[in-house]
Amino acid sequence: MKNETNLPYRSLLSFGAFLILFQLAIGQSQGEHTPGIRGKLQLDSIWDPVVYLSHIPTLNDMYHMSTGMIISEASLDSLGNFSFATDYLSEDDQLYRIHISKKGAPMGSLIIGGDEENHMFVVGNKYSSIVLENIPGNPPFTPVEIQGYRPAQELREVDRIYTYVDSTHFKGSSVKGEFVTKAIYEKLRFVADTSSHSLVSLYALHRSKFETNYPINKSFYEGYLKKWKGEKSNYFKTFRSQLPQESSKDYTAYILIGLAFFILGFVLNHFLKRKKKKGPNPIQKLSVQERKILEEIKQGRSNKEISETFNIGLSTVKSHVSSIYTKLNIKSRKEAMDF
Fold first, then answer.
1. In whole angstroms, what is the distance from residue 218 CA to residue 227 CA?
2. What is the pLDDT of residues 212-230, one digit of tens each?
3. In whole angstroms, how far apart are CA 16 and each of 21, 23, 167, 267?
4. Beta carbons within 10 angstroms of residue 154's beta carbon
5. Which residues contact 184 (CB under 8 A, 6 or more apart)?
6. Cis omega (within 30 of 0) on the bond before 139?
7. N or C end: fewer C-beta atoms under 10 angstroms in the chain?
């Protein structure tokens, strides 16, 4: 026979357990939506229990390191928990790097590749909530799960694809390695083409070694630039500057070259016309005496005055004047004065 008196007590316990679970669920939900970068890192004893956050201004700076790039640091507690406040970050999405250092090593040391790679990248802003947790092992950031901000999760998926390039799964012939690497880069370009988040898209394209792919796939990059033509961030400005000018259909150079040739042609044509029009100086056709008489005519003197000046006959003066008219191709004294 059942003991009916225990039913209210059991119901109370069940209700209390429900409240506890509900409060835990609410607390976890609120934590996932509270702005900040937080998480749990379980590290081997070789690592210093401090996490650093750096701002990456352009994708070319992903593997640059200096203490000036570090904007915050957080100590791990006994369980490996850490937290970064993000209220001072930009309102727009930016790229950040989280890294740790070995004990005794400078805090700005960066290890790229291998089993001791000590960093990872995240995208976020002052309002985003990013929660990450790793699985103990090496490298410490390779098996990391991200919750919260969706673009940060998408960025992590891009990194997962990229890590296969150096994966030991591809040991074998170089031909096979090249084939698989090419397929991975093609997958990254597909992610870049389909992603709706500009920085995640550009991050995937940057990982795909676009510099070597551009010459054989120009139409893709022209379409890509057209799709994100409204993006004015430093990330896209740097990316555009790395592509050949022809990819953006910039005809400025051609216009300037054409304009230079036009000006050169105009100046040359004008010079030749002036030279042709100018020709040999007609004055050189005149004799010494005729030049002297021409100067007298320019002074407004009459034939009689010229005759008296040079002590020659009037008929001689008239003969010289007629010769001057013929040689200079003029017909009057006024034209001679204006010549």
1. 14
2. 889 889 999 999 999 999 9
3. 9, 11, 50, 96
4. 20
5. 161, 162, 164, 165
6. yes
7. N
